[in-house]
Amino acid sequence: MRLYALTIFLSAFLLFQVQPLIGKYILPWFGGGPGVWTACLLFFQALLLVGYAYAHLLSTRLGPRRQVWVHLTLLAVSLAWLPLAPDAGWKPAPGAEPVTRILLLLTATLGLPYLVLSATGPLLQRWFSLAHPGESPYRLYALSNAGSLLALLSYPFVFEPLLTRPLQGLAWSGGFAVFGLLCGACAWRIRLVPAPAPAAAADPLEPSPTLVDQLMWFALPAVASLLLVATTNKLCLDVAVVPFLWIVPLTVYLLSFILCFEHPRWYSRRWFAALLAAGCGAVCHLLSQRTAHVPLQIAGYSLTLFAACMVCHGELHRLRPAPRHLTRFYLCVAAGGALGSVLVAVVAPLVFSDYHELRIGLTLLVYLVGAISLIYRSRSLVQGIAIGTLAAALLVPALRAEAGLGPAVWLASWGRQLRFFLEDTWKESLAVLVVLVFCLRNGWRIGTGEWRQRLSLFPFALSLLLGSIFIAQAIDDRRSVLAAVRNFYGTLKLREYNRSDPATHYYLLTHGETTHGLQLAEEPARRWATSYYGPTTGVGRLIDLLPRPRRIGLVGLGVGTLAAYGQAGDTLRFYEINPAVVSIAEKHFSYLGGAAAEVEIALGDARLLLEDELRQGRTQQFDVLVLDAFSSDAIPVHLLTREAMDVYLRHLRPGGVVAIHISNRFIDLAPVVAGLARRYNMESITIDDEPPDTDWWLYDTTWVLLTRDPTVLRSSELSRHARASDETMRTVDWTDDHASLFEILK
């Protein structure tokens, strides 16, 4: 068993180690946002399905000896893909559709090795069941997920900080070669095992799975996968784009697989169903309170995902078939997982202009729990949902209570919030209580008892209530929204506030929960620079100080606020990767159309465009190059590496300045900028701006200005507002091959 266990563990480790590695290569080519990871998840789930289908066909259509030769041949051919490194020719053209390009790139770069790795789990489990009849192969599936989890957690903390990209690729390729030897040894052993006779294969004590069972094999992982990607989107785009925050939901997802398939004792129907219902209540609250503390949101969404995945995968484990149906079982699981990813990554952006998949997934899961309780007569699931619903009525007021003022104050605040909650929802609460009493009368006793079909009505009723709450929230979210656009780069919402009050009437563009730009609606305030770009910010002071005419490059458009500084004779060249941002800025805001300067817009990733301009001999000769492409707090690492600064400096005129916006809730970019200044012998100053509360349209900001000609920085207009230099500040040196965001987490 050890050889099978080691081979399966290593294959799963390599399978998940290659995912962040390949992502590190291609993130810079497609803008560096979380949408790249969502597209990668789609590819990984789809190819996992292909691998499982291959394993199923191989194990059911061929005898062991032929299986060995086919698989060894495929394994040998896959070595031609090594060493692993994407070709730079796959870099997208400006404006190219990114999802299709990413899928083709991944197929060409690691298609066959990934397919071989993905097929290893079910194929070797089937071989193990043939070589060791009577022993369950399903614990090997738990071991496989443990390998996946180890790979996922070790990459950002071990491999990324210690190894460059080329070394990571070589290390992975070496690991794949070792895997090939181990897999070959397993294959060589199994070749002599005789194929099971048809009569022996059909054990009368092991009933064949029903059609309903097989539908559940498909539906449960589909909902779990949908919730995984939906939670990832919610955390990474709407809550906080913390580096690799996608690791949290994927870790939760894999952990649920490990626990459920390692031993049945880890999954309690009653208590995980209760946690799921309570989590649905918490999600309802968090979705209605967008200003909740970030750690609370991360914990709430992650724990709810954990409960949901435990229910899905726990029920999946209960429905596992006899080993002779093993590959068909895994094929259905992979098909469901792929469908969940497709629904979120492909279908949802075409249907919705906002992220509704989390709401839909939770509603579907509660309904599915009702269906399982009805079909398989589970009192425990219904009792758990009932317990969790009652707990949610206490949990939501607890989340609203004042925290940090001591237990007594919190308890009093919780009591008030509970009263408000019951006053606001007394009709819904009464309806839930009536249905609960009707469904569970004579069915409260924990343990065995007579099954009654009416018990399953409660989960169905709860899913209906949950869906109605989510629909009401979605309608309420749209009240101030004039326009909403969703694409590969995220969700943009244009909102209008205070239409009846000319003094405070304004328009706001948000990307996730982060302001992308703000414009006051009435004259003369309509022409003011607002938000992160006010006249007292570092970039505002710098632009006003420069002699005219000025040529200014701007990485990141927003709503075009910086065009407010343009004067006749000036040229402002914006680089923007998201076409939806350009459309909204031109249609709904007047900064671009009303600018006195000439405005140019280049659509595509700024660094790729600037590099292409250099190849064409078109140096821009900027007086200032403004770096502000950090949408929704995401940090495109490729814009702050040595290689990127090489490009920027070649586009600056002698004495030109690079202005970098480093305001961020989660990342301290100062050491990275200091590293660039030291590397290129540039002088820099940092200007913090904290406008008075009366100027509510201006935000607190931090800008760093860098130049090789310090004359402009020594101007009193800048130097007297600069932060005192810190000679002891550590520096971080980023390159395209070696950069880790964990070095600069706040």
Description:
With 746 residues, the protein is α/β, with parallel strands linked by helices. The chain folds into three domains: 1-195, Up-down Bundle (Growth Hormone, Chain: A); 208-467, no CATH class; 534-744, 3-Layer(aba) Sandwich (Rossmann fold), CATH 3.40.50.150. 56% of the residues lie in helices and 10% in strands. The strands form two sheets. It has a seven-stranded mixed sheet, sandwiched between helices. A four-stranded antiparallel sheet has the order 1-2-3-4, covered by helices on one side. Helix 10 (269-288) runs parallel beside helix 17 and helix 13 (357-375) packs antiparallel against helix 14 (379-400). The radius of gyration is 29 Å and the shape is globular. The model has no long low-confidence stretch (mean pLDDT 85).
Strand content: 5-15%
Derived from helix and strand composition plus strand pairing, the structural class reads alpha/beta
In which order are the strands of the major sheet placed? 7-6-5-8-9-11-10
The major pleated sheet works out as: 7 strands, mixed
Number of strands: 11
* Tally of contiguous helical segments: 23
Measured between the Cα atoms of the first and last residue, the distance is 45 Å
Q: What is the radius of gyration computed over CA atoms, rounded to a whole number of angstroms?
A: 29 Å
The low-pLDDT segments are none
Secondary structure: helix percent: 55-70%
Nearest-integer average pLDDT: 85
Number of domains: 3
Shape: globular
Layout: helices, strands, pairs:
Layout: H1 2-26, H2 34-61, H3 64-78, H4 98-131, H5 138-162, H6 165-190, H7 198-201, H8 211-239, H9 247-262, H10 269-288, H11 294-318, H12 326-351, H13 357-375, H14 379-400, H15 407-424, H16 426-440, H17 457-477, E1 481-487, E2 490-497, E3 506-511, E4 514-520, H18 538-545, E5 551-555, E6 571-576, H19 579-588, E7 598-603, H20 606-615, E8 622-627, H21 642-651, E9 652-661, H22 670-679, E10 683-689, E11 701-707, H23 716-719
Helix pairs in contact: 1-4, 1-5, 1-6, 2-4, 2-8, 2-12, 3-4, 3-6, 4-6, 5-9, 8-9, 8-11, 8-12, 8-13, 9-11, 10-11, 10-14, 10-17, 13-14, 13-17, 14-15, 16-17, 20-21
